Amino acid sequence: MRLSFYSLSLLLSCLCNTAFSQTQRINFEAPYQYPEGVAYAPSQKTFFVSSVRTGTIGKVTQQGHYEPFYQDSSLKSSYGMKVDEKRNRLWVCTGDANYSTYADSATYKKMIRVIGLDLSTGRKTDDINLSNLAEGKHFANDLVLDEAGNLYITDSYAPVVYKIDPQMKPSVLTKSDWFRSNDIGLNGIVYSSKGFLIVANNSDGNLLKIDLKDPQRITKIQLEGFYPGADGLLWNAAGHLVLVQNKGTHKIYELQSDDNWQSARQVAATATTDRFHQPTTATLQGQTVYVLNSKMNELTDPTAPPSKEFSLQVVRFLPSK
Fold this sequence. Notes:
By secondary structure, this protein is mainly β. It is about 5% helix and about 40% strand.
């Protein structure tokens, strides 16, 4: 069958639109909340999101219905979060780093807490204060769990990574000049069952590997490039590292290592046409990676009207050349 010029053009247009259209989003209304962290709970079939403005922890359904899950103005702001299905907990980084409606001089850039919430009821079960463990300013940005139930937390202002053991006893895991920055330092963090952590320095874009048998042994992962604005980190279903980059780039990358993360190479990235809007953190639903569009860049733009709607967006990776 021969196609007319018009039919062929229409077919090519449809194919192009299919190939390069934006990926699926779950849009939800959470007026002025500006969520930064996201975590998916399979047992609840629900996404949880944080809020840098009020600290409110919200629930988002697959259909885009948002409702508050836990509210407490003493949290000031909430950031990274992780689901702990074994203990039926949601662990959340909280503090008073920059954008809170409830900021005050007693807590501003000083308070650093991790709270635990019952996944089923929203009741606060744990509240761990980390502010007396290290000198300087503090900003609990992200956290991760290991199989034993230990929590590891990044501090974006003080050059340390904290550990909270299963008995909820906090300590400094390690401290390093690699973690320092004049702005936001450590951000995203992931745990490997091979016995190490990987953390991202948001300022210079370096990825750093921390040996859990000897936490003072910290090495810079050799990369083909750097990722200034590196935010959330996540292992995907293939065991590759997902890196979320903002600060004007607004892309997501997939990194792979063949030498146990002494070095890594970029194997895939999102397309510019996917138009992520200040992406911050990512979560895994089955094999699908969702990234949170935080729109937090609006908070430093006095001309931007406050947003009421935010979104969770599916990540589609295209192979890197």
